[in-house]
Design brief:
With 194 residues, the protein is mainly α. It folds into 2 domains: 54 residues, Homeodomain-like (Arc Repressor Mutant, subunit A), CATH 1.10.10.60; 135 residues. It has 10 helices and 2 strands, in the order ββαααααααααα. A two-stranded antiparallel ribbon has the order 1-2. Helix 1 crosses helix 4, helix 4 packs antiparallel against helix 5 and helix 5 runs parallel beside helix 9. The protein is elongated, with a radius of gyration of 20 Å. The N and C termini lie far apart (57 Å). The N terminus is likely disordered.
């Protein structure tokens, strides 16, 4: 918080943007992208639509800003992977780092899972797909057979699916994360040995 000349607390612009993003994601998770309106987001925040427009012109702008939080760590991971030798150890590290990015962005992956048709229509959908393709390329063995391509794809898919399937299963979150990573890693190892 900052204070103005009357010493009354004011929220910083960044805090308001984050609150908008949080509320939008919460509403979209509750009722879906299509059924969530900017008016509802503004009402839940207790602000006018004009105040909301100051930060975001459209609902898609809000979602794009949310996905920037996901894309940034993936971009950093891709840059890191580009500078590494294509060894099995590198691929294991890619999966480990990707697992951390997934954990940190689990609400966004839930959004993608539950709003697949919308993701295909939004500009961000193609950006995420491109990055996932690049990441997958780093996991593939040289001259990969179709079976081994499927194994690598399945490794990434199992990380996504594991987040959703295991979120409602009792147990330690860290233990679940490690189990998901172990299964994904086993698939990558099989792809490189096969």
């Amino acid at each position: 918080m900052v204070t103005d000349s009357s010493n009354k607390p004011q929220q910083r612009r960044g805090d308001t943007r984050q609150r908008i993003r949080d509320v939008a994601l919460e509403l979209i998770a509750e009722q879906g992208y299509e059924k969530t309106s900017l008016r509802e987001i503004a009402e839940r925040l207790g602000v006018t639509k004009a105040a909301l427009y100051y930060h975001f012109k459209t609902k898609e702008d809000i979602v794009v800003s949310l996905f920037d939080d996901l894309i940034t760590p993936i971009d950093e991971l891709i840059v890191w992977a580009n500078g590494q030798p294509p060894t099995l150890d590198t691929k294991r590290e890619i999966l480990t780092r990707y697992g951390i990015a997934l954990t940190n962005a689990s609400p966004l992956f839930r959004f993608m899972q539950e709003n697949q048709a919308t993701m295909r229509e939004l500009s961000i959908g193609e950006n995420v797909k491109e990055r996932m393709t690049t990441l997958l390329d780093h996991l593939l063995p040289e001259d990969a057979t179709m079976t081994n391509r499927v194994r690598c794809f399945s490794a990434v898919f199992s990380m996504h699916a594991g987040m959703f399937v295991l979120k409602d299963v009792e147990g330690d979150p860290e233990e679940k994360r490690k189990a998901i990573l172990e299964v994904a890693t086993d698939l990558i190892v099989q792809a490189h040995e096969g």
